[in-house]
Write a structure and sequence with these properties.
This protein has 206 residues and is mainly beta. The chain has three helices and 13 strands. A hairpin with an 8-residue loop joins strand 4 and strand 5. The longest helix is centred in the N-terminal third of the chain and has 12 residues.
Length: 206
């Protein structure tokens, strides 16, 4: 597992860091910008565009109860490829100290043990050169032929600086049966004062 996450972080590290003036939010975190279909979504990078798609619904070719978007109407699906080579979707961005970002993520598989395919979501901190795993599931943890539920995860930046969000999914020991990582709703969480202003604007306070 550690090797798998390291590969995803290494791919992110090969990309250019954003300038200090970059906005402290993820671009197109809910995958609403741009059309449905295969390829790297706007604002994101991938090592295999043919294995990343933006969709409005997904059932793995009839293998699962359909997944739908958790924010807006679109979300991203990463599909496994060649044996032991991760499909990675990543974005590098800046965060202020104490800023929180939140995501919805799910792992679904048509594989079975002992082929322990794995999907993960992590954050890499370029200031401290350290990583944090936000989500990690595998065939062994969810079961054979299972579409796992959407799971909410969040991350609060300990320091201001550049970060990478790395979503990845990997076939283990074979490539005959695909597994998937689903990602949606990656955006900055408004500060409490911002929520108050929003409520006042809607006439919900006072």
């Amino acid at each position: 597992m550690k090797k798998f996450l390291t590969i995803a972080a290494a791919f992110a590290a090969s990309l250019a860091l954003p300038s200090a003036a970059s906005a402290s939010t993820i671009i197109n975190g809910g995958f609403e910008s741009g059309p449905l279909g295969s390829g790297a979504p706007a604002g994101w990078s991938t090592n295999n565009p043919s294995l990343v798609q933006v969709v409005s619904s997904f059932n793995g070719g009839g293998s699962f109860t359909p997944y739908t978007a958790q924010e807006g109407s679109q979300f991203a699906v990463l599909t496994t490829g060649a044996q032991d080579i991760a499909t990675v979707l990543t974005q590098i961005f800046n965060l202020g100290a104490g800023e929180t970002i939140s995501f919805m993520v799910a792992f679904a598989t048509t594989d079975y043990l002992p082929f322990d395919d794995v999907g993960a979501l992590g954050i890499f901190n370029f200031t401290t050169f350290s990583g944090t795993t936000l989500f990690s599931q595998s065939v062994g943890s969810v079961g054979d032929f299972v579409g796992g539920p959407w799971t909410s995860v969040s991350f609060t930046a300990p320091t201001a600086g550049s970060y990478a969000l790395n979503a990845s999914v990997q076939n283990v020991q074979d490539s005959s049966q695909p597994s998937y990582l689903l990602l949606d709703a990656a955006g900055a969480v408004p500060e409490p004062g911002t929520w108050m202003l929003m409520l006042l604007g809607l006439g919900a306070v006072g």
